[in-house]
Amino acid sequence: MTGLREPSTGAIDSRLWVSGAVLALLLVGSIAKGTPMARATGTKRAILDATLELAATKGISGTTMDEVAERAGVAKGSLYYNFSSKDRLFEELLLEGVGALAEILRAARGDLRGRAAIEALVGALLDRIASNPALAKLMASEIFRTDRTWQKSLFALRHEALTVFAEAIAEAKPESRDHGTCGLMASSVFGAVLMAGLEWLVFEPERPRDEVAAAILDSLSGGLLGGDRPAPR
Amino acid sequence: MTGLREPSTGAIDSRLWVSGAVLALLLVGSIAKGTPMARATGTKRAILDATLELAATKGISGTTMDEVAERAGVAKGSLYYNFSSKDRLFEELLLEGVGALAEILRAARGDLRGRAAIEALVGALLDRIASNPALAKLMASEIFRTDRTWQKSLFALRHEALTVFAEAIAEAKPESRDHGTCGLMASSVFGAVLMAGLEWLVFEPERPRDEVAAAILDSLSGGLLGGDRPAPR
DNA sequence: TCAGGCTAACTGACTAGTCAGTACAAAAGC
DNA sequence: GCTTTTGTACTGACTAGTCAGTTAGCCTGA
Predict the structure, then answer these.
(1) N or C: which end of chain B has fewer CB within 10 A?
(2) Lowest mean pLDDT: which of A77-81, B172-176, B206-210?
(3) Would you say residue A232 lies in a domain?
């Protein structure tokens, strides 16, 4: 029943995935074929896309390989031809996604400094969440799991993404580097954007993007903690 | 083999769950027996505790009823005697947890205003996460799922908890009420505390609690976005 | 013609949920 | 006082169904 599958068209189906510019950056960059970041094509991509869509609502263990095969329009055997196990399928999916995120953040920051850097990072992360909410949901639910076979590599990439924030923070607020708290503050900012971004997409999708970005930046601008600034520690 | 079970001792086993003060508040308050917030005792509590511990690392679909039964030290049948299905077991667990959170936040805010209110809320949420990381992880992974039978009631309680933040924000920053963005800002602050709190517990548990609270408040104090305040919209 | 890519049917381990039965305590009958 | 009944809480072997992973073979293009 090959009729179910698109006839190997859509091989480079990059919808909603990585913006053209960053895609170019990825291909031109030093990321070789075979690394987790190399963009899969054809069947492999169809499988990854289907997996992501299903996992976003049903979670990882709630998603069955049979469903993935059906959604991707391939036979179950193809899943195991392209990925050695369910675990590895999800590992590749997450590593690809989080890896791309780190790239995007680095690109967004460029050589901006201080406030501009943070604003650019928040905006880029928000856009990424908006363009790929499925991955955002998946990240939110997997990032603190400690029983996965792939946790080590996922943690590493997660750390890479957070580091982009942490560096910008350390620069904007040098005393946080002394206290070693830039990592925590990075998490804090990351969590703010992730949670507000998902709130937006899930509960108030009609709201314009800029309003959401403004609200997040507002909540990070101390307006909430108005009056006197906290005593510098 | 009745020997396996404790002889109906440990009936009111409240370890790590709700602090004594808040427990008193719950019992004295208007929350009647039979509502989701009523604290289960005996077998039911043992089952809920076991479920939470397992679900924190393995997720909901990754947790089997057989495991829960074993960990709780009861027979599988007892699970179904006390809860009509796996779904309802997890529903009760989540509703109990999120409901208690809303109570705690309301109590923490008291009639504080402005900056003090926000600081109290952030601190209370952080403490709650620290005293029950399992539930925090579970919340982080379930709060945006849209395929659960219980999503409606969970969303309602979630909204209740966020509203406590939103109200404090609306008061501290009246113009956000006009824009209808206090909900988003509440999510943002909530996400910041949740993510940073879990980062702390999972990756740097040796750090003192106050340092974490300070880092979070710092990230919400505009230090990051130093220099000029953003133009009020 | 043959190898790489894929398929369809199959397998066995596991899992949610069931149900006949046990334990035991508090009425109810005598 | 003692048996018998009733009700509640719990048990664990069992069933029907599901799911990850396997395998033998088909198809197509080089």
Answers:
(1) N
(2) B172-176
(3) no
The answer to whether position B171 is within a domain reads yes
Query: Which nucleotide is the nearest neighbour of B42, by CA and C1'?
Result: D9
pLDDT: is B33 or A216 the higher one? Answer: A216
A24 has a pLDDT exceeding 70: no
Q: How far apart are CA B37 and CA B27, in angstroms?
A: 10
Number of domains in chain A: 1
CATH number at residue A69: 1.10.357.10
| pLDDT for position B41 | 66
Secondary structure letter of residue A231 according to DSSP: P
Q: How far is A5 from chain B (nearest CA, A)?
A: 27
- The model's pLDDT over B131-169, given as tens digits with 9 standing for 90+, comes to 999 999 988 888 888 888 888 888 999 999 999 999 999
Which chain B residues are Cβ-neighbours of A202 within 8 angstroms?
144, 146
- Write out pLDDT tens, residues A138-169: 888 888 888 888 888 888 889 999 999 999 99
Give the nearest chain B residue to A171 (CA atoms).
B224
Closest CB to A57 among B114, B145, B224: B145
Cβ neighbours of residue A187 closer than 8 Å, sequence gap 6 or more: A162, B195, B196, B199
Q: Is the pLDDT of residue B6 over 50?
A: no
**Residue-by-residue DSSP string for A150-211:** THHHHHHHHHHHHHHHHHHHHHH-HHHHHHT-HHHHHHHHHHHHHHHHHHHHHH-TTS-HHH
Residue-range definition of the domain harbouring residue A78:
2-219
Residue A88 lies inside a defined structural domain of this protein: yes
Domain-located, residue B231 = no
User: Which residue on chain B is closest to A173 by alpha carbon?
Assistant: B224
